[in-house]
Prior knowledge:
A: Rossmann fold, Rossmann fold, 3 domains, 6-stranded parallel β-sheet, 38% helix, B: alpha+beta, Alpha-Beta Plaits, 4-stranded antiparallel β-sheet, 38% strand, elongated
Amino acid sequence: MSNTQTRNEARTLTGAEIVLQALKDNGVEVIFGYPGGAVLPLYDAIFHQNAIRHILVRHEQAAVHAAEGYARSTGKVGVVLVTSGPGATNAVTGLVDALMDSIPVICLTGQVPTHLIGNDAFQEADTTGITRPATKHNYLVKDITKLAGTVHEAFYVAKSGRPGPVVIDLPKDILIGKGPYTEAPKTEHRSYRPQTEPDPAQIKAAVALLKGAKRPILYAGGGVINAGPEASRLLTEFVRLTGMPCTNTLMGLGAFPASDPQFLGMLGMHGTYEANLAMHGCDVMLNIGARFDDRVTGRLNAFSPNSKKIHADIDPSSINKNVKVDVSIVGDAGAVLKALLECWQADPQPQDRNAMAEWWRQIDQWRAKQCLQYRQEGSIIKPQHAVKRLHEITRELGRDTFITTEVGQHQMWAAQYFGFEKPNRWMTSGGLGTMGYGLPAAMGVQIAHPDALVIDIAGEASILMNIQEMGTLAQYRLPVKIFILNNEYMGMVRQWQELLHGSRYSESYSAALPDFVKLAESFHARGIRVTRAEDLDAGIREMLAIPGPVIADIAVAKDENCFPMIPSGAAHNEMILGAGQSGGVAGVTDEGKVLV
Amino acid sequence: MPTPTPCPKNRFMPDSIDPSFRNATIAVLVENEAGILARVVGLFSGRGYNIESLTVAPVDAERRLSRITIVTSGTDMVIEQIKAQLDRLVPVHKVADLTLEGPHLAREMMLIKVVGKGENRMEALRLADAFRARVVDATTESLVFEMTGAGDKLDAFIELMRPIGLAEVTRTGVVAIARGPRSLQS
């Protein structure tokens, strides 16, 4: 790529060079990828330049999760490069993960040359067909004159509106051929122009409802994180100004400071007692950037039965999908919050202060249940205690700390016991629930924040799903800390089997586990194993003091359940608080059992 | 062909029967590009929506636009979802629920083949005349009629032909447009 020519004249480049130039012009600094036959021309072009760094993963799924971690911790678009056929199909899980959690990712896939498409050629797969429902949008580039424009458009689509993954399928002859490089167009997209500014009339209606509320609640989700750190700041300002209680979804943790007295914790299936009962008992609910997911609502016909609901979302299809709302606001969470703040301040109507005080008294009664309380007794480490101590010790250290997780009990304990004060510090697979997400996501976070402390809170089963990425940690000297809560079970599966299937632990025991210390060592990392509660703090401190990657294998209580829990098919006010309280599983109906 | 669709069970409220269940004719203006039909059809199958009929053809070569007409059914909430889901597809320009937005015209075309001789053949021709169906092919033992109209008119004609030699039917599915000056393409 020559810089001698001026920017204005259309340069002729090879397809591979066009792709790299377009990535560079869209601010890309890192690609996560894995080479193969169909993308060799792109890898050759990567070899010839230094502007974009390529991170070689060990499996394509991990490349997408790494790009997700990169994107979610920076607010930028994550970029993935994989080859045709198996390269593309391996990436599909990551793509659906990014789709469900609205993470902006661009995935470049190799493809067999255009004249072979449809011939069942070697390493051919119908990538655009396979990824159509796995992406926000996808492209197959068959004309090199459209290549640069397609890449520019893909960035626009990936990051605007509700963000999501975009696939660009690149036949090998397009990468080798020569064509013009064109700059990103200044004009609007022909058909895709999501609304970001809210309708003032709807904002007014929302403020009128909120001002008159006696028991309001704000329920904020990942949309606030996606809207950028300013949206989280505005959210905090709005909550403090209005005196409302605030709860966050799993994806929204960090949007509002966990230590704030107005924070009720996470809501939903494993949310806090106070958050769920406040949702159930409120009279006005303001949802910003969350989607009334089944993990949040519980049984829909018993969900917050006596409230007026306001829903602000950038995706109109999220509104009135599961829950019928009274005021709908389409717009970017940041823009909505800004408008709400301005409208609130301009509105002369006073709040009902007495009612608000009464509401907080009620909430404090719920809080007094101390639903997250556990008893750490004896030598066996309670998993909750391990997460709590990890949080407290990292907070003492004062380093900027990023947490990723795998999926299962450990993920819920991390969400419950690790308090997040800032947005973009919490990376977890929410919608799809992808085991194996945490380690590659942590790699992506560490690449973006080389000096930060990045910890993957994992389970012993999940971590094995992408354990090969230990090789990537070693190659790039990424000092990721893997904190395994090892209960020798697929804990959440075991918990459901205990509660719903008569304690028949069918295939949920983690048999023949590796020696994680030796496993770490074989990948040039350090391994630590902690088995006794009295050694926990020292183990955590040792892990954090090691400058390179570490696996800390924490042996925890094997049969601990994750509470509170709203059994599937139950309502918010039918939650199980703890083992002592359950006595069989109240609230699980046959219909509930059908639900996942 | 259009048989009454039973109200499907709501995923989250298993026992509720929503009285707002209805048919909807939805017009979608899209980019005329490869894969657009697969996106729309995949959206319907992936999310479990009904398709009773679907037609598509280019309508503006210069602006590379095609128009899809979909007849579907669902509760008001589901139909609102269908519209919102269609609208968020990147190559979709506009979505309109013609059933909801005011009076509209809906037409189908059909080719129908009747095989028979003698009195049956004469009866077929007489009925075709009454229904304003055109004869577009004829042999001594067969007739092909072309007929345009609302779906129920086509249904009625098919039923009349059944006892007198109905051999084959092909229908376009519904195309629809709003009455009055409103336009999707403006």
